[in-house]
């Protein structure tokens, strides 16, 4: 299990912490500090067991209101950064 932390940009959330199973390349846990607590807990529950590449393809580019990004988009960016490091 690999622990990975990311500081999102342009959102209310301030820190994203992931546990990723390196053998299956799946998200096993997501915890987000800041942001919309209930929504982000729900997203974390939905992502559990999903392949990193599938999460990226589903969440990349989602915006929040007039902002050019969102917490889901930042999750995709975090996991893209994780992939680039591994």
TrEMBL record:
A family per Pfam: TSCPD
Family: Belongs to the ribonucleoside diphosphate reductase class-2 family.
Molecular-function GO terms, alphabetical: nucleotide binding; ribonucleoside-diphosphate reductase activity, thioredoxin disulfide as acceptor
Originating organism: Grylomicrobium aquisgranensis
Protein name as catalogued: ribonucleoside-diphosphate reductase
UniProt keyword Nucleotide-binding, yes or no: yes
Domain TSCPD per the UniProt entry, residue ranges: 7-82
GO BP, sorted A to Z: DNA biosynthetic process
EC number per UniProt: 1.17.4.1
Catalytic activity: a 2'-deoxyribonucleoside 5'-diphosphate + [thioredoxin]-disulfide + H2O = a ribonucleoside 5'-diphosphate + [thioredoxin]-dithiol
EC top class named in words: oxidoreductase
Keywords: DNA synthesis, Nucleotide-binding
InterPro entries linked to this entry: CHP03905, TSCPD_dom
């Amino acid at each position: 299990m690999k622990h990975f932390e990311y500081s999102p940009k342009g959102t209310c959330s301030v820190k994203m912490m992931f546990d990723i199973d390196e053998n299956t390349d799946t998200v096993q846990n997501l915890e987000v500090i800041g942001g919309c607590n209930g929504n982000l807990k729900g997203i974390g529950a939905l992502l559990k067991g999903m392949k990193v590449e599938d999460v990226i393809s589903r969440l990349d580019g989602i915006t929040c209101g007039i902002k050019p990004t969102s917490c889901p988009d930042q999750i995709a960016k975090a996991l893209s950064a994780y992939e680039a490091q591994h």
